[in-house]
Design brief:
Elements lengths: L20 H8 L3 E5 L2 E4 L1 H20 L3 E2 L5 E3 H7 L1 H4 L5 E4 L5 E4 L4 H11 L8 E10 L14 E11 L2 H21 L4 E5 L10 E7 L5 E6 L17 H11 L4 E3 L5 H5 L6 E16 L3 H4 L2 E3 L5 E3 L1 E7 L1 H11 L1 E2 L2 E2 L10 E5 L5 H16 L4 E4 L5 H11 L3 E5 L1 H5 L2 E6 L5 E5 H9 L1
Parallel strand pairs: 3-7, 19-20, 19-21
Antiparallel strand pairs: 1-2, 4-6, 5-6, 7-8, 8-16, 9-10, 10-13, 11-12, 11-13, 13-16, 14-15, 17-18, 21-22, 22-23
Helix pairs in contact: 1-10, 2-6, 2-10, 6-7, 11-14
The structure holds adenosine-5'-triphosphate and magnesium ion.
The site of magnesium ion has 3 residues, from strand 13.
């Protein structure tokens, strides 16, 4: 992508409305634009990052055996009347009427709809386990939308729903998502800690929130420090192994971690002063086993091996991609801007032409640009007439992992400079060597 032809509306000044660093940087880099309160457009740079986050979420959901579909954003109120949640949901639900005066709503979540899909076609335990997910916009009329896309009214959610014959099988399905979440957040460059969460009226201890520690987080959290060293399950984890997944779950829930709602002061105090952490955190995911809460009122049953009808046991599993993007920035930035983990960076590298119009610089940059693109890299080529200082500041601000700097003196000697955004380390290489290194 040539910067001169791209759409990346950088702001020079810090936007006043932004209270936290991620919101400030997302506005300054032109990643998002607010359209009305808590409702955002994702501009091209932001869209690139969001797509990469979604791709990782998708890969890990698929690896764990979940199957993607797509459900609509608008739902009929009827389904929600069946489950009894239409009245309960309150003002967070955006209620709409169509031209026939039928009550509709903009979905805040999809348990009812997926249960309806399930009951319409699954009749036998032989079709289980089943886990269906989508990545779709949700709307919740939050009382206090704030911090940009961290807490917005319209937001993206990956929501998965599992169906099993009984509780034991449902726990295995839960553990699959637990492991998938550990892998997903790790690949996004984050250390997320699973914390026991409130299960509300359903009871049991099977709900976990995945929390990233950050000073600007809205949740108050308490945990043991040892989480920092826990191993992330490998890519070749056997998701069919009941005991294998249970042991990962047991390990990751073996030490204290809870949000304020579930906090047990005595248990926390029992941890040595040096090993405990009370901090603020951002909820990036939430998984839930809720048994027959929806299958019962909505009549979602399958025939079991005993020939009898059984209500299916369900769970739901959410991740917020549009919250994850700012969460990643909260975790990874410095005074000059964003520092993207390579896995979600909008571009793999930025080629900076220090003197457009200079034949040597132009030829060298063109060569680098083409070579990197041909190797399948996402490259931004700063071919604008901006001053060098502005180009460096922009490159630092947007946080692309590697900067390739081509100036007249260097290219005359057949050399370019590589700068690592994260460490600031610079090295001078021949053009050839630079291409080899960046395409390795
Ligand atoms: P919160 O406690 O932050 O309001 P929640 O518990 O209501 O969130 P869930 O129903 O558990 O949210 O939704 C699953 C995931 O969707 C959350 O873990 C979060 O990542 C994301 N999410 C929820 N609400 C929002 C929002 N208003 N803006 C952006 N992402 C959201
Ligand atoms: Mg939640």
């Amino acid at each position: 992508m040539r910067l001169s032809r791209y759409f990346m509306p950088i702001l020079k000044e810090n936007p006043k409305e932004a209270e936290i660093v991620s919101h400030r940087l997302m506005l300054r880099t032109g990643m998002i634009r607010q359209q009305s309160q808590g409702i955002y457009s994702w501009l091209p740079l932001g869209k690139r990052v969001l797509d990469k986050v979604n791709a990782i979420i998708r890969e890990e959901q698929n690896r764990a055996g979940a199957i993607e579909l797509s459900m609509p954003t608008l739902q009929s109120a009827e389904l929600w009347q069946e489950s009894g949640r239409y009245e309960d949901y309150g003002k967070e639900m955006l209620r709409i009427r169509d031209r026939q005066d039928r009550p509709m709503l903009y979905g805040p979540t999809n348990e009812e709809m997926i249960t309806d899909i399930f009951r319409s076609s699954v009749k036998s335990y032989k079709s289980l386990p089943l886990n269906l997910y989508h990545i779709q916009l949700k709307f919740r009329d939050e009382i206090r939308p704030r911090f940009g896309t961290m807490r917005s009214r319209e937001f993206l959610m990956k929501d998965a729903y599992s169906f099993d014959l009984n509780q034991a099988d449902a726990i295995h399905s839960y553990n699959k998502m637990f492991v998938a979440y550990l892998r997903t957040f790790d690949r996004l460059g984050l250390r997320a800690i699973p914390m026991r969460a409130d299960t509300g009226p359903i009871g049991g201890n099977h709900s976990h929130e995945f929390i990233i520690l950050a000073d600007t987080g809205e949740s108050e959290v308490y945990c043991h420090k040892s989480f920092v060293d826990f191993d992330i399950p490998a890519a070749d984890t056997d998701f069919d192994s009941v005991d294998g997944l249970q042991s990962v779950f047991d390990k990751w829930t073996s030490v204290y971690a809870a949000t304020s709602e579930m906090h047990d002061e005595a248990a926390f105090d029992a941890i040595g002063e040096n090993d405990r952490l009370s901090a603020r955190g951002i909820e990036v995911g939430h998984i839930f086993y809720f048994g027959t809460k929806y299958s019962e009122p909505m009549g979602a049953k399958v025939q079991g091996p005993d020939g009898k009808e059984h209500l299916v046991h369900m769970g739901s599993y959410g991740i917020g991609p549009t919250r994850l993007v700012p969460a990643i920035i909260e975790a990874s930035h410095d005074e000059n801007g964003i520092i993207w983990p390579a896995s979600v960076a909008p571009f793999d590298a930025v080629v900076i032409n220090m003197k457009p119009g200079d034949e040597g610089c132009d030829t060298t940059c063109d060569r680098l640009y083409v070579a990197l693109q041909n190797a399948g890299k996402d490259v931004l080529y700063d071919d604008t007439d901006d001053r060098a200082g502005t180009k460096f500041a922009t490159a630092d601000l947007i946080g692309v992992p590697v900067q390739v700097i081509a100036g007249p003196r260097g290219v005359a000697a057949g050399e370019v400079e590589l700068k690592d955004r994260k460490t600031g380390a610079r090295e001078t290489l021949t053009i050839e060597a630079a291409i080899n290194k960046l395409t390795a």
